[in-house]
Structures are given as C-alpha cells and as structure tokens.
Inverse folding.
C-alpha cells in the first residue's frame, strides 16, 4: 500500500519515492515482496500516483485510491486485482522489512490454519501503536488502538506492525460491511480482524525478532534513521561475505 500523502515529510515528493541508499523506499518493499512466491503483486497508489507509477516493474498491477479513506478502503480499491486465497498486505513506507521475515510469516500462516495472521512486534515504548490482546491459546483476541486502550492494555508491549495476511474474498466482504465510526470517516484493516473475531475465525500473531525492520518512515528524521540502519545492514552483510571487508566508520567532529 503506497497511497498515503505523507504530510510530515514536508516535501512535494510522494513519500514512497524518497530514497533509502539511493533507491525509492517503495522499491525496497517490493523487492522483499517479490521474494515471496505469489500469483501477482498489486500496489495501491494515491497521492502522486503519476510520479510513482513509472518506477514500478511492468509485472506489478496498479490500483488507484483516489480518496485516502483508510487502509481498509485501500484494500477495497485493489479488489478487482486480487485473487482468491491468502493475501499478504504490506506498507510501502517500511523499506527495512526483510524477505526472510515475509517468507516466515507466510509459512507460519499456512501451518497454523488460521483465517488471518498479523505480523506483530515488541517495543520498549509502544506509545501510538495498536496493542495486541491475546487469548489463552495465544491467538489474537483483538487489536486495541492506543487512544482506546484501558490501563492494563496500555501496559502491553506487543503491537500491530501493519502487515497482515488476509483471506480473499472474505476480507473484502467484511470490509464492505464496515460503516466508519471515526472522525476521519476511514475504514481500517484492523476492522477485518475485529469482524473475523465476531465470526469465530482464528487470527494468529507472528512476532518479528527485530522490530527495527518494521520501522515506518513518516518524517525526515525517520528517513535519516532508516538510511543509517540500511547502511549498517549492508556493511554487516559485506563483512559476513568477505572477512577482508573493513566496515567504514564516520569520525564525528
């Protein structure tokens, strides 16, 4: 999903086109997604779609979200391109996500037999994130937004990363039932999780080992942090591959 406006970036450039190590962040996410066997890749575009579309591989299908009415609405905008079966949903502003993480998520989902799976992460400071409330068997009972959480829920450190595997067409059918009750008039993907629970369907969680790879880019400061993390990752990969490789370092003045 790459339709967001990205106001906090304070730039006329669409957020997902901002480069990380010289490559638009959206292409980092697509690279990870392409490593997962799938029937097709669909990118939902919105703000600045005229600028974003030309950089996409010709094999990628494009859906247009003309009005930004939430992540759930974005999935509905892609409906005509989706095929029946599990659908991996990613955010276009998480360039550090690893292909290995996505492969493990997909395999975990298949083995579990769950209707849906949410990629979660544990944070020292979970402020602002939806808390993952679990049932006794370890499945997800619900996802509670930070502003709606009770004190005991605010104490939870496992949070929603915004990456999901949903069943198609069931997820689309459920989203069409949603009537926005928030001030923004938006439909969210967490609405699918809630409606699956109402049906009695099981929703599993797979917690990523390194929460840093799911860091989203929402500001120039975030972009700088992600750039540093990507450089560090690549240096370590080169060092692992070549014992003679000397990791560069910066001298602070």
């Amino acid at each position: 999903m790459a339709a967001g406006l990205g106001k906090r970036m304070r730039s006329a450039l669409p957020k997902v086109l901002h480069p990380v190590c010289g490559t638009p962040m959206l292409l980092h996410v697509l690279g990870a997604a392409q490593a997962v066997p799938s029937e097709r890749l669909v990118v939902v575009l919105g703000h600045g779609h005229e600028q974003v579309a030309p950089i996409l591989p010709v094999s990628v299908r494009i859906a247009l979200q003309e009005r930004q009415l939430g992540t759930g609405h974005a999935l509905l905008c892609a409906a005509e391109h989706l095929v029946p079966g599990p659908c991996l949903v990613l955010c276009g502003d998480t360039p550090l996500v690893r292909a290995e993480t996505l492969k493990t998520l997909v395999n975990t989902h298949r083995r579990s037999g769950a209707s849906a799976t949410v990629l979660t992460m544990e944070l020292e400071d979970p402020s602002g994130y939806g808390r993952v409330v679990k049932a006794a068997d370890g499945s997800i009972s619900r996802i509670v937004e930070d502003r709606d959480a009770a004190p005991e829920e605010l104490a939870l450190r496992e949070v929603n990363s915004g990456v999901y595997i949903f069943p198609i067409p069931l997820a689309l059918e459920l989203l069409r039932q949603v009537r926005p009750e928030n001030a923004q008039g938006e439909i969210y993907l967490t609405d699918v999780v809630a409606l699956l629970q109402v049906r009695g369907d099981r929703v599993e969680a797979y917690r990523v080992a390194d929460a840093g790879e799911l860091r989203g880019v929402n500001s120039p400061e975030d972009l700088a942090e992600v750039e540093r993390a990507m450089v560090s990752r690549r240096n370590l990969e080169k060092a692992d591959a070549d014992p003679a490789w000397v990791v560069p370092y910066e001298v602070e003045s």
